[in-house]
Design goal:
Immunoglobulin-like, five-stranded mixed β-sheet, 1 helix
């Protein structure tokens, strides 16, 4: 009984804090996790349930937008106890699609020039009625049927 109380008391001292450099960043940006545990002798860092490292601290960069779960398990093998901390990080898409037609009321069979005003992109796809019609930075098209896009 005394040993069990002592073990519980030692584990209670092993509370840990996790400090992250950011919670929401643009995809391609590194997030650093600083382990501020006390009393731990071993660490396990998980990303979305998959073990990434057993080092004291951890850094992660995602090239894809989305949310990820980070879990730190801090262990003390001497007194056979562990504790964990779970947090969520979000990577956002750095691309903003935008364009401006140089004119808005165009007679049929006239060339319409669209100027790309996007930011953060490295390639482009122009679709007309759901069909890929161009991949250049800017786009021009002749509309032979009346209507709006």
């Amino acid at each position: 009984m005394i040993q069990q109380q002592l073990q519980s008391r030692l584990c209670a001292l092993q509370k840990h804090l996790l400090q992250k450099s950011a919670a929401i960043v643009v995809a391609g940006t590194t997030i650093n996790f600083t382990n501020q545990s006390t009393g731990a002798t071993g660490y396990q860092w998980y990303l979305d349930g998959i073990l990434q490292t057993t080092s004291v601290n951890y850094s992660y960069v995602s090239t894809i937008a989305g949310k990820h779960q980070i879990k730190l398990i801090a262990q003390n093998t001497t007194v056979n106890c562990s504790d964990q901390f779970i947090d969520t990080i979000t990577f956002t898409c750095p691309v903003n699609a935008d364009f401006t037609p140089l004119a808005s009321n165009i007679p049929l069979n006239t060339v319409v020039n669209f100027v790309n005003a996007s930011s953060g992109a490295s390639s482009y796809q122009w679709l007309v009625n759901g069909t890929l019609s161009g991949v250049a930075n800017n786009f021009s098209n002749v509309f032979s049927v009346a209507g709006t896009l």
